[in-house]
Amino acid sequence: MSKPEKLIIDGKRLDGRGAQDLRPIKFKAGVLKRADGSCYLEFGGNKVIAAVYGPREVHPRHLQDASRAIVRYRYNMAPFSVEERKRPGPDRRSIEISKVSRESLECVILQEMYPRSAIDIFVEILQADAGTRVAGINAASVALADAGIPMKCLVSACAVGKVDDTLVLDLNKDEDNYGQADLPIAMTPSGDITLCQMDGHLTEDEFRTALEMAMEGCRYIHQLQKQALIEKYGQMVSPPAQEAPAAETAEVKEEIFKEDVEEFKEQEQQEQGGEANE
């Protein structure tokens, strides 16, 4: 694929977005029945599924930590996720992304609550379109919450890049391939940064501006993450019943009590009749 002559034309990017616009994002929690927690995410052209298993016993046992749970994170791109078929199995890139992604999440997990156990996170990239590491972190964070893993908070992530000397939020594939810089960021809602990597060159002022843009994007993604969990678990909680007047409540209880007494009497009569026949 040849490099586009311009990546930004008349203030608009090739996909029609402005410099500070995110691609369309869709979360869905609890998509896998056999996982303890799971999440499906569409982030632009990225399609990601994350699954969490545990806490569970660590095997082999010599890997156990007597004071806390260990967190294991596996990032993998499916062979069909890219245009040119990827060779199956782990490579240096996936090992590196697995490491930094694990570190971005384990700092918010209350590991001390589960000594001698493991929390396994699996992230599978079904379709790749730039920004797969931040997409994986976003999906994994929701999957951890779906699994009921005790956490301080969710972690949200997005990337900022420099394209045609302009800072842009959430790089697409062409911008990622041909841009001047790429800065993936993961952070908590309080603003604590759990992941910060950079590929390329930014001035000090550009870095500060890019960081502010990334934080704004992460705040928006955090709202979507919360909404995905509310959509799943909000349906499981019935709305509070309206309190009935005291007299009505007493009457209802009295009627229920009378019905229970009558049912008890009928059962007693049936049992006595059965004994007489015998």
UniProtKB/TrEMBL annotation:
CDD domains: RNase_PH_archRRP41 (cd11366). Residues 239-249 have a biased composition (Low complexity). Residues 250-268 have a biased composition (Basic and acidic residues). It comes from the Archaea. It is found in: Cytoplasm. Residues 22-150, 153-217 form the Exoribonuclease phosphorolytic domain. Residues 238-278 are annotated as: Disordered. Its main location: cytoplasm. Catalytic component of the exosome, which is a complex involved in RNA degradation. Has 3'->5' exoribonuclease activity. Can also synthesize heteropolymeric RNA-tails. Catalytic component of the exosome, which is a complex involved in RNA degradation. Has 3'->5' exoribonuclease activity. Can also synthesize heteromeric RNA-tails. Belongs to the RNase PH family. Rrp41 subfamily. Component of the archaeal exosome complex. Forms a hexameric ring-like arrangement composed of 3 Rrp41-Rrp42 heterodimers. The hexameric ring associates with a trimer of Rrp4 and/or Csl4 subunits. This is Exosome complex component Rrp41. It comes from Methanooceanicella nereidis.
